[in-house]
Design brief:
Oligomer: single chain
Strand content: 5-15%
Radius of gyration: 35 Å
Largest sheet: 5 strands, antiparallel
Length: 502
């Protein structure tokens, strides 16, 4: 039996690795399509791009792992069934449910590893990935000088260059960091790169300057953030708007200007320490839930005090009292649609006095309580999600073994199609459950575990069908012949036969 289990694991390894790699590549390319516009034109170094790619992979791996398990199981058992190896095993007295012991053991190992991965690696990767995107968003695109175009991106200074000469005779000149590709020479060793330069400075206050130079060169400063513009053979014209009769003119053979913050340097100083729900470990989630529950308890006590201060004949007091008593006060933030006052119901007096009334303060307390309960539900969803998705690997083994045996002649295409259909239904159920839980309509626990429960029942049913062999479920080249109503039709025929004999 050990040899059989090793053989099944060996047959499963290849399809699992192939499906895992293929699905990871597909989701990675999809992620890059959305990521490319955020990094285009930023002239990021290869180390930053590599870090961005690596940090985007853990989220993909967490999603792909259960999918790869199902695809690998269906493909491997489909091949065993197509080669009549499953039939030979059954002839030796080995039932179908014994064949899944080895895959179930491997799935348990993957599940434990995935839970650890989702708790330790994934939150930290998501947090660093978010901060890296924030830093990239703050990075300004590298400035380019273009022929015949006034560049006014220097904070009150405009630069016009009539002709640009580079080593490759490009028609524009990029200012980038020394470790990047497009870079002007650090020292103007040869002939000047820029010709026919006109620079204007128009500060809000003070004299206006116009600099005209025959030629010039540009290089990055040692800090790689500023650019040094060296001008040759020109003049500086200066005039004060308040004293236009005073005009100064200065000739120079060499003059240098510093253009600040044009190097497009990558700065990691914009990171945030705040973590969203998907950036929290299990311990962080529990701690944050405890904090929100303390806030909810405080709001509940405040609502009780405000409710006691309402007049006895207030029409809304009954709704509030009923809500506060239900489920220990967990739902009292959901009665707002019934107690919001209409404009015609506002009492006489100033609006300010009404806004400060106990009833209005009670309504505001319920609003805050509703938001608090939604935050708790959202955190609980993330908590149970870290367990439910890895547990899906076990469910998909139970589901995939009978599907693989029954899809004996379907091939890889049919196996992938079945897997994609299962995943589509699974993720629809998971996302729908998350939405309902965030709206406080169902428990976060059942929101995450209901899809697993549904597919667990389906998997057991398919396994019973395969073991008993009393269902018609065949998947041929041209399509699927699925007839779960055949036993019911047989039962109806028997009843008709008994009625005819009577």
């Amino acid at each position: 039996m050990k040899t059989l289990h090793r053989y099944i694991l060996f047959e499963l390894t290849g399809p699992f690795i192939v499906s895992f790699s293929l699905l990871t590549f597909i989701l990675f390319m999809r992620n890059m399509v959305f990521l490319f516009p955020k990094i285009a034109g930023k002239h990021l170094g290869w180390t930053v791009i590599a870090e961005l790619i690596v940090l985007s992979l853990p989220f993909i791996v967490a999603l792909v792992l259960p999918m790869a398990v199902l695809v690998g199981i269906i493909m491997s058992f489909g091949r065993l069934s197509a080669d009549n190896e499953i039939t030979a095993m059954k002839a030796l007295g080995i039932p179908a449910h014994r064949l899944m012991l080895a895959p179930l053991g491997a799935a348990v190992v993957l599940m434990v590893a995935a839970i650890w991965f989702n708790d330790r690696v994934l939150p930290e990767a998501n947090h660093r990935y978010k901060n890296l995107l924030i830093d990239i968003a703050y990075l300004k695109p590298t400035l380019k000088l273009r022929e015949g175009v006034i560049m006014d991106e220097f904070g009150g200074m405009g630069i016009l260059v009539n002709r640009i000469k580079e080593k490759k005779e490009k028609r524009n000149l990029s200012l980038t960091a020394p470790d990047q590709t497009e870079l002007g020479e650090r020292e103007p060793a040869g002939p000047a790169e820029l010709f026919g330069i006109i620079i204007t400075e128009n500060p809000p206050s003070g004299p206006r300057k116009t600099i005209v130079a025959d030629s010039g060169a540009i290089r990055m400063a040692p800090d790689n953030k500023d650019a040094l513009l060296t001008l040759y053979h020109g003049e500086i014209q200066e005039v004060d708007p308040q004293r236009q009769q005073q005009f100064q003119r200065l000739f120079f053979t060499r003059h240098q200007l510093r253009l600040r913050d044009v190097g497009g340097m990558f700065d990691r100083g914009h990171s945030s320490s705040y973590r969203s729900d998907r950036e929290l470990t299990l311990r962080m989630i529990r701690d944050r839930i405890a904090q929100w529950r303390l806030e909810a308890d405080s709001l509940y006590r405040m609502a009780r005090v405000l409710l006691d201060s309402l007049p006895a004949g207030d029409s809304a007091s009954g709704d509030f009292e009923k809500a506060l008593q239900s489920s220990g006060g967990k739902n009292f933030g959901r009665v707002l649609p019934r107690v919001e006052p209409a404009a015609a119901e506002l009492p006489s007096g100033t609006l300010t006095s009404y806004l400060k009334s106990p009833k209005m303060r009670l309504i505001q307390t319920c609003r805050e309580a509703g938001y608090t309960q939604q935050r708790i539900a959202s955190l609980e969803v993330e908590f149970w999600k870290k367990f439910a998705i890895p547990f899906a690997s076990l469910i998909f083994v139970l589901l995939g073994v009978p599907l693989g045996i029954l899809s004996r002649r379907g091939g890889a295409g049919v196996s992938i199609s079945i897997s994609m259909g299962v995943f589509l239904v699974y993720w629809i159920c998971l996302i729908s459950g998350e939405t309902l839980a965030d709206r406080l309509l169902i428990s976060p626990f059942w929101a995450m575990w209901t899809p697993n429960a549904i597919f667990l029942v389906v998997g057991f049913w398919l396994l019973i069908v395969q073991v008993r062999g009393n269902r018609s479920l065949a998947l041929a080249r041209g399509g699927i012949d699925f007839n779960p109503l055949k036993p019911l039709a047989r039962l109806l025929r028997k009843k008709r036969g008994h009625a005819g004999e009577a």
